[in-house]
Design goal:
single chain, alpha/beta, Rossmann fold, six-stranded mixed beta sheet, four-stranded parallel beta sheet, 17 helices, 14% strand, binds ligand F0G
Length: 422
């Protein structure tokens, strides 16, 4: 019997279910949270912090397990050594360009499958392993499918991925193919795939591993707390994060909320969720004070991983933005591509989706919402090498602000000297 329970996110309903039951929604149709019995640990904030510092040789998930999935038996954990990702302090040039001195980048692209999704998958696939399921599935804009396929492969589970055909990068497509998933390219967008994977997993004994599965959220929850532990428990003024299906911002919020309630941290940061203009339903809702939320039809964007018009976790995201006195912002294609070029050129390779967060941070700083003296952490969600086409296209285009095209030369020293102005 698990001490953790599933609970409806609608406070008016609040119905609870056994955590070992396979379900992704309440009977009323709302999403579920995993609620843990933290009191049974009987720890002060200081005791929790000490606990996280133990066993530094173990993957992050083991160290943080008590706050993520306390009921999961250790022998069921399926890990590829995700986590403990670098937290980079911006170099002088980046500090100058963005007008913030205490600017940090938390690079989640340095995880085993090169995105933050591994944080959720260690939890989701381990829970699947614990439950004894045989087949797992997800819809994806690329990174979830890459991560799920790798973790499920490692655990020996059959794996199925539903992808919007032609709408993800080649590198992302290679990942589930090579790790042995059944890869289904559907002639629809991500929202269409998401709808179908819910129908598929409702009808057949296939375990759904999108972030509407609340155990995924539990794993992703740790990114904020891990960052704060790297800052020696100093709480940033801001966390900035790109938003697509809205699982990650929901997880970041839940993790920080719980850490505050357990007195592991002594103040609250603010959250900023950044969307692209091409797929901005949460930004639009924010502009109307969240009086309503309307899905949109997502348009094409270079930030293809967040080309999502109907985010499954919209309600959870809104809950967290309200709790953390947060904001949503939107950015254009030019703004995000220029931001990518700026951060890439400092030696930190980022993807267009991560660049969305960087561009949003820049806009919020210019508007004075973020102040010069603030301590700011931008979450970079995937590695640049997953999106080489976007990078090549930008740098080969002479109209790009920071274009840096490769030059083709005859094989002579003279030609090289001329190219180098020597
Ligand atoms: N950044 C990257 C690189 C992503 O792959 C995603 C989501 C996000 C940001 C947005 O996170 O959905 O939790 O708000 N990718 C999903 C996928 C949808 O299928 O890989 P979110």
């Amino acid at each position: 019997m698990s001490k953790s329970v599933l609970q409806c996110i609608n406070p008016q309903c609040g119905k609870r279910y056994n955590a070992l039951e396979i379900r992704y929604r309440c009977d009323c149709g709302e999403l579920l949270d995993v609620i843990h019995d933290f009191e049974s640990f009987n720890r002060t904030g200081e005791m929790w912090r000490k606990e996280f510092k133990k066993n530094l040789q173990l993957p992050a998930f083991f160290r943080f397990k008590d706050i993520l999935l306390p009921d999961l038996p250790e022998e069921k954990i399926v890990t590829l050594f995700e986590g403990d990702t670098p937290l980079y302090l911006a170099n002088r040039e980046l500090q100058r360009i963005f007008g913030i001195k205490r600017l940090y980048f938390k690079h989640e692209g340095m995880n085993p499958t090169l995105s933050f999704k591994d944080r959720g998958m260690v939890a989701g696939v381990s829970w699947a392993n614990y439950l004894g399921v045989k087949i797992v599935a997800c819809a994806s804009t690329g990174d979830t499918s890459a991560s799920m396929s790798a973790y499920a492969a490692f655990a020996g589970l059959k794996r199925v991925v539903l992808l919007p055909e032609g709408k993800i990068s080649l590198e992302q497509l290679c990942q589930p193919i090579s790790s042995g998933a059944i890869v289904l390219g559907l002639q629809t967008d991500f929202d269409g795939c998401m709808k179908l994977v819910q129908e598929l997993t409702a009808k057949h004994p296939i375990y759904l591993l999108n972030s509407m599965n609340p155990f995924r959220i539990e794993g992703q929850k740790i990114i904020g707390l891990e960052t704060i532990s790297q800052l020696n428990w100093k709480v940033p003024d801001w966390f900035i994060i790109p938003v697509g299906n809205a699982g990650n911002i929901s997880a970041l919020g839940k993790g920080l909320r719980e850490a505050y309630e357990l007195k592991i941290i002594d103040s609250l940061p603010r959250l900023a969720g950044i969307q692209v203009e091409a797929a901005n339903p949460l930004y639009q809702s924010y502009k109307k004070n969240f009086s309503d939320f309307k899905p949109v039809v997502a348009q094409k964007t270079t930030a293809s991983a967040i080309q999502i018009g109907n985010p499954v976790s919209a309600k959870k995201a809104i809950r967290e933005i309200k709790y953390f006195n947060g904001v949503f912002e939107e950015v254009s294609e030019k703004e995000l591509l220029d931001a990518k070029a700026i951060v890439d050129s400092a030696g930190i390779s980022i993807c267009p989706n991560s660049a969305t967060a960087v561009a949003g941070m820049k806009k919020l700083r210019e508007a004075g919402v973020i102040r010069e003296k603030d301590l700011v952490v931008v979450i970079l969600t995937a590695h640049g090498s997953k999106f080489s086409q976007a990078t090549i296209d930008y740098h080969k285009d002479p109209k790009s602000t920071y274009s840096n095209p490769p030059k083709t030369l005859p094989p002579t020293l003279e030609a090289i000297e001329r190219a180098l102005n020597l």
